[in-house]
Amino acid sequence: MTRALLSLGSNLGDRAAHLRAAVAALRPWLIATSGVYETPPWGDPDQPFYLNAAVLVADPEAGPDEWLARAQGIERAAGRERDPRRRFGPRTLDVDVIAVWHEDGEPVESTDPQLTLPHPRAHLRAFVLRPWLDIDPHARLPGHGALADLLRTPSVADDLADLRPRPDVALESDQ
Questions:
Q1: Which of 53, 100, 162, 173 is in Cβ range 3.0-4.6 Å of 108 for a Cys bridge?
Q2: Active site annotation includes 20
Q3: What predicted TM-score, i.e. pTM, was given to this entire model?
Q4: Sequence-separated (6 or more) residues with CB below 8 Å from residue 175
């Protein structure tokens, strides 16, 4: 496997610093980084707004399990604590593996409960799709179609109206 699309989100502490740290940790494999969007919480409204972004990464040695391990390691480094009572609760950093592609461009499909691919709810989440569109305006979510079409579905379009671009939050630097 060589490519993966990861979704980043933070709504606790220094949100921008958590996203920057995630991008820095992924730098060896980084291909592209989206803009940052401020978004209302999804699935659990009693929490602060998120900053969200997406990154495209590549590593010919990494399969889906390796991307998941890297994502979880980055979350742990940011102090992520999982509360089983609040599945969609607040977090210092969330790094989700949205999709993984083989070297030939074919998407990886998996029903493994530890890592379902493509992400089973990505097609419903404007905070995943809109940043991804920054990276690749012609992208397709495997099994669901073009991102531009998915963003026009009624429930996603309603959520899209609440996303606010944050051009003042830069995730990459020359350092």
A1: 100
A2: no
A3: 0.94
A4: none
Q: Tens-digit pLDDT profile for the chain (175 aa)?
A: 689 999 999 999 999 999 999 999 999 999 999 999 999 998 888 899 999 999 999 999 999 999 999 999 999 999 888 777 777 778 999 999 999 999 999 999 999 999 999 999 999 999 999 999 999 999 999 999 999 999 999 989 999 999 999 999 999 854 4
Count: domains in the chain: 1
Catalytic residue among 3, 70, 96, 159: 96
First to last CA, the chain: 29
Among this protein's residues, is 134 annotated catalytic? no
Q: Of these residues, 59, 65, 80, 134, which one is catalytic?
A: 80
Task: Quote the domain boundaries for residue 126.
Answer: 3-165
172 occurs within a structural domain: no
Q: Are 125 and 52 in contact (CB under 8 A)?
A: no
Rounded alpha-carbon distances, angstroms, from residue 123 to 21, 65, 73, 155:
26, 22, 25, 10
| Residue 24: how many other CB atoms lie within 10 Å | 15
For the question of residue 96 being annotated catalytic, the response is: yes
Active-site option among 3, 15, 70, 91: 91
